[in-house]
Design goal:
Blueprint lengths: L2 H36 L13 H11 L11 E6 L2 H10 L11 E8 L4 H4 L3 H22 L3 E2 L7 H8 L5 E10 L23
Antiparallel strand pairs: 1-2, 2-4, 3-4
C-alpha cells in the first residue's frame, strides 16, 4: 500500500468516526434515560438469592463515584444473615419489609479518609460522597434487573452497634437489594419551572 493510499484510508476512518459519533452519543443518552426511567425504590422482593458476583458488580460500580478530593470515603457492609437483616429492619424504626431482601448493603462514611484533608467539613463531605456512591450502586442494580431502596431512616447508634462499626465510621444508608416482587409506578416529577432558577432565586 502506498503512502497516499494509507493517508486516504486513515482520513476515511477519521471521517467515519466523526460522522458516527453523534449517533453513538444519542444511543448512549437514550440508554441512560431508559435506565433512569426504570429505576424505582423497591420494597418487596422475591426469595431468589442475589449472587456474590452481583454484589461485587454493584460495589465496584459504587466505587467509581466522585468524591471530595478523591478521598473515596465509602465503605460497605454486606449483610446476608437473616437474623441480622431482621435486626437492621427493627433498627430502621420497624421497617420490617427491609428484611425480605436477601441482601442488605449498609453504606458507610469512613471519616478517617476525609478528616485529614477536610477537618470539620469531613462528615458533610463524607455523607455526600457516600450518597453519590449509593445512587450508582442502585443504578447498577437496576441495570442488572435487581431492585433496591435507599433507607436513611434508622437509629444510627443501633446500626453502629449491630455492625460493630469503628468510631470513625458513620452509617449513611441501609440498601436492601433483591429481585423485585413489585413494579412501582414511575414518580411524578416536578415541572422544570418549579425547580430552575437562573442567576438568583
Amino acid at each position: 500500500m502506498t503512502r497516499d493510499m494509507t493517508r486516504r484510508s486513515l482520513m476515511t476512518a477519521v471521517a467515519l468516526a466523526l460522522a458516527t459519533r453523534p449517533v453513538v452519543a444519542r444511543a448512549a443518552r437514550r440508554s441512560f434515560d431508559s435506565l433512569l426511567g426504570s429505576r424505582r425504590m423497591v420494597r418487596r422482593f422475591t426469595a431468589e438469592p442475589v449472587t456474590d458476583a452481583d454484589v461485587a458488580r454493584l460495589l465496584s460500580t459504587a466505587a467509581r463515584a466522585p468524591s471530595a478530593g478523591n478521598t473515596q470515603p465509602w465503605a460497605f457492609v454486606v449483610v446476608r444473615q437473616e437474623s441480622m437483616r431482621e435486626a437492621l429492619a427493627r433498627a430502621a424504626h420497624g421497617q420490617l419489609w427491609l428484611a425480605s431482601a436477601p441482601v442488605a448493603i449498609v453504606a458507610c462514611a469512613d471519616l478517617s479518609r476525609s478528616r485529614p484533608r477536610y477537618h470539620d467539613r469531613a462528615e458533610r463531605y463524607g455523607h455526600i460522597d457516600v450518597a453519590f456512591a449509593s445512587l450508582l450502586l442502585m443504578l447498577a442494580g437496576t441495570e442488572a434487573g435487581l431492585g433496591a431502596c435507599f433507607v436513611g431512616a434508622f437509629d444510627d447508634g443501633e446500626v453502629t452497634r449491630l455492625l460493630g462499626l469503628p468510631v470513625h465510621v458513620r452509617p449513611v444508608a441501609i440498601i436492601p437489594v433483591g429481585h423485585p416482587a413489585e413494579s412501582p409506578p414511575p414518580s411524578t416529577l416536578r415541572p422544570m419551572a418549579t425547580i430552575r432558577h437562573d442567576e438568583r432565586w
